[in-house]
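Predict the 3D structure for this chain.
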Amino acid sequence: MRFSLEWHDDAPNASAEERATIADVQVFVGEVNVCEHFSGQASGLRRPSGEATVSAYPIAEALAFEWWRLFGRRDDDFQLFKHRCGYALPDLRMKYDGERFAVTCRAKEYANPPALFYRSARELLSKDLAESEIGGLVGQVLERLQASRVSQSALRLRWERVRTSIEDADERAFCEAAGAMGLDPYALSDQAADFIEQAGALLEGEALLEFLSGLPLTGETASRFNDLLNWMGGCEARPRYKSRLPLVEDMRQNSSRPSERAGPEPPWARGYRCARWVRVALNAGPGERFRSVSTLARRLDAPNFSSAAPISGIRALVRFDQDDVRVHLGGGHQARHRPESALFAFGRAVGDAIGNPLVARSVVNDLHDASRQALGRAFAAEFLAPVEEILSMREDGKDTASIAAEFGVSEEVVERQLQNRHRIEEACAA
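Done. Predicted structure below.
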């Protein structure tokens, strides 16, 4: 992703900030200039153009004010056109999964002003490169304001605060945690700040950000925050035999455990590969089915495993303590009334424990694209319902419902496996 700006002089806008920052803007996603568009009356059109003439100020201001949400929150698109302030912009979207910063653009047409942005593109960046490119755009806009003698602006004040926070590791971590909750770290309530600090004492890094991003925040109260922390404490007070998974510990420590291949790869690719490795490590042939939490737990040398109490927002808590691996499945009534959901959550927790970077605690929740969750979902799908077995059963004439029942998973898992079969094989290829 790269921004190119050619400034205009003497623009007629009433706002000093916008007047100083009118520019012909090009945005390159990969090698594609997504600002190419046709403009004119929708009935006939169409004058081609290679840039969008806009004020860069509202774009830079939105990026600066959403900085911590952009890099802290998971499963949440930042959509640039929502901050266009009446200008026509491409449908540029940004999302960070904890490992890769995805930039995508889709075709978009406006009625007012009439314009058709017809380019589509996608690019994956490292977090450092994404911060550099976005920060560079903000810096260019601030330099232009300074040159135009617009010395004071909300953008400048905000960017100074962001830059100061970036330089302090602890403050940066706190700000990203607030962003993960969709909150402004500089305007937090005391209860939200206290909750972040308490959660940060239990979880760290990506595990903390995924936990906070996955919380159902509508109508949250201090008591609700306390319920989540108390649930974690209650889980860890349970007897070890109810949650310890001895064979998961062994596999975690196995030197042949799959790791990242040379070069970047999506977390789900590691999840699929790890699932196949675990089946081999367990000597679980293609015909072996697990079907229920209790069956899988016994296979992992945990015959006394039992679920913890249910809690909204967390499917499972994974705990590493020295050489122990413990999984607290937030099942309760769900394990009885939705056994396929409980089994899939348990499989995700096993995948998280074996395939993801080691942390003291992590959660399994309802996020999809966040890196730890993506690996766990891919692991559970391929481990519980191997795609080669699904394809074989399809050839034998079985339908989706009967295949799902055979594996103890939902029909959606089977359908997803079929949709993803080519990328599963590519991820697992030698």
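The radius of gyration is 25 Å.
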